[in-house]
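Key result, reporting period 2: structure in, sequence out.
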């Protein structure tokens, strides 16, 4: 939900225009930040009542659009605030973020980033695809048998270790009696 409605923004802008365009009087009267009131007035003067509209959806910009905006700022033709008006962007903060990303990473910085948690990589290798001929069948069976043998060897080592530990415990308990 947005903080201010379109009608409230219009009321603030009308107050500003009715009072000889006195910015300090307006932002003090409504207890708003000076920059906020200035942005609303500028958008109203540039776009009319539509400039104060509350956006219900988040607009997604392509890397090409972002690059065009950034190049306007870098060339020195426009400031971030002026580019915001020229391209009808939501805020100049967005332009600053794009500029920072572009200066840091180049065009890659303007591409959308994947959202959310990354997918987990499998812990174990995937099973090979189903064999299509006799040789592949034999190779797959050989692979399975090796895996089974390795498992049985590990199991045998583990059982021997447990038996040694229990033998050691028994001898220690007999010696302590």
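The corresponding designed sequence is given below.
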């Amino acid at each position: 939900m947005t903080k201010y409605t379109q009608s409230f923004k219009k009321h603030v802008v009308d107050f500003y225009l009715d009072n000889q365009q006195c910015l300090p009087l307006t932002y003090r009267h409504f207890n708003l930040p000076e920059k906020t009131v200035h942005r609303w007035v500028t958008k109203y003067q540039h776009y009319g009542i539509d400039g104060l509209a509350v956006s219900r959806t988040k607009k997604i910009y392509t890397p090409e659009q972002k690059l065009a905006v950034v190049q306007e700022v870098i060339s020195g033709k426009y400031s971030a605030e002026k580019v915001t008006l020229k391209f009808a962007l939501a805020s100049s903060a967005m332009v600053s973020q794009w500029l920072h990303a572009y200066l840091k990473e180049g065009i890659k910085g303007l591409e959308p980033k994947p959202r959310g948690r990354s997918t987990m990589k499998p812990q174990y290798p995937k099973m090979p695809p189903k064999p299509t001929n006799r040789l592949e069948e034999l190779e797959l069976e050989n692979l399975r048998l090796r895996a089974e043998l390795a498992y049985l060897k590990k199991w045998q080592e583990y059982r021997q270790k447990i038996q040694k530990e229990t033998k050691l415990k028994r001898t220690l308990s007999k010696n302590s009696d």
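The chain has three domains: 1-56, 60-113, 128-177. Residues 128-177 form one domain. This case is discussed further under Risks and Mitigation.
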